Amino acid sequence: MQILRDLPALRAAVATLKSDGKPLALVPTMGALHDGHMALVEEARRQGRHVVVSIFVNPRQFGPNEDLDAYPRREAKDAQLLQAAGVDILWAPSVEVMYPAGYATNIRVSGVSEGLDGAARPGHFDGVATVVTKLFNQVAPDVAIFGEKDYQQLAVIRRMVTDTNLDIEIIGMPTQRAEDGLALSSRNAYLSEQERKDALALPRALGEAKRQIEKGEPVEAALARAIATLASHGFDPIDYVTLCDADSLEPIATLDRPARLLSAAKLGKTRLIDNIAVDPA
């Protein structure tokens, strides 16, 4: 596996990989890899694809007083995992390579980016759309693979790719979970032992709300119960627990189309997100 940090070297290596005609898959990450990331890598390698994994902690998607400085960085360990998984290239640029002096361009996707985390974290999805656009231009993949845990992020990227006519297939992979149901996340490392136990209230509250809504109970009442459950387990603040159209992410009050139940809430110092599909009968 090649570990590359400058753009000319990346482009030369990508050209060499593509010379055999096999498709190239990109898995963008911020590092601190876990089994969820590795499931994306496994999917990337399917059908004989070449694989590039990027590790870049993107400052433009962190707001003031968020965890940019504390975000876990362990490139050496991540590189070992990726090499063992058969990755061809680890693209690990510096901030100066990604955003050189004089950089002045911002990518903004309207609509799907504006509610949920877009409202709770102003500017976050501008940073996501900007860095992903740059990664797509740098790596020139045929396929890019993202996890559904960051469901709104996936929706933003799909909209951006469609609107800009990028010839890249976007694959969303189901959320990978620990045996007890908690969605895998690099930020789970922040949780204390007690918080890790309390965190299970999030997937369980969403699961119960899903069951209630699919049985025909009023959406508003099911969401209120989920919020109360989270509050009783120490989540504060609770940014949202919302049922949305699965494609547009517009909030919906009745289950009359494929939907997604999404939540974000803070437990201690750790902000957790999760989502599950909710389907009409």
UniProtKB/TrEMBL annotation:
InterPro entries: Cyt_trans-like, Pantoate_ligase, Pantoate_ligase_C, Rossmann-like_a/b/a_fold
GO biological process terms, semicolon-separated: pantothenate biosynthetic process
Residues that coordinate or bind (R)-pantoate: 61, 153
Positions annotated to bind ATP: 30-37, 147-150, 184-187
A GO CC annotation given for this chain: cytosol
Amino acids binding beta-alanine: 61
Enzyme Commission numbers on file: 6.3.2.1
GO molecular function, one term: ATP binding
Keyword Ligase carried by entry: yes
Subcellular location: Cytoplasm
Pfam families: Pantoate_ligase
Residue numbers annotated as active site: 37
Pathway terms, separated by semicolons: Cofactor biosynthesis; (R)-pantothenate biosynthesis; (R)-pantothenate from (R)-pantoate and beta-alanine: step 1/1
Keywords: ATP-binding, Cytoplasm, Ligase, Nucleotide-binding, Pantothenate biosynthesis
Substrates-to-products reaction catalysed: (R)-pantoate + beta-alanine + ATP = (R)-pantothenate + AMP + diphosphate + H(+)
Top-level enzyme category: ligase
UniProt family annotation: Belongs to the pantothenate synthetase family.
Comment field (misc): The reaction proceeds by a bi uni uni bi ping pong mechanism.
Database matches in HAMAP family: PanC (MF_00158)
Subunit structure as annotated in this protein's UniProt entry: Homodimer.
Biological role stated in the UniProt entry: Catalyzes the condensation of pantoate with beta-alanine in an ATP-dependent reaction via a pantoyl-adenylate intermediate.
Protein name: Pantothenate synthetase
Gene name, Swiss-Prot/TrEMBL: panC
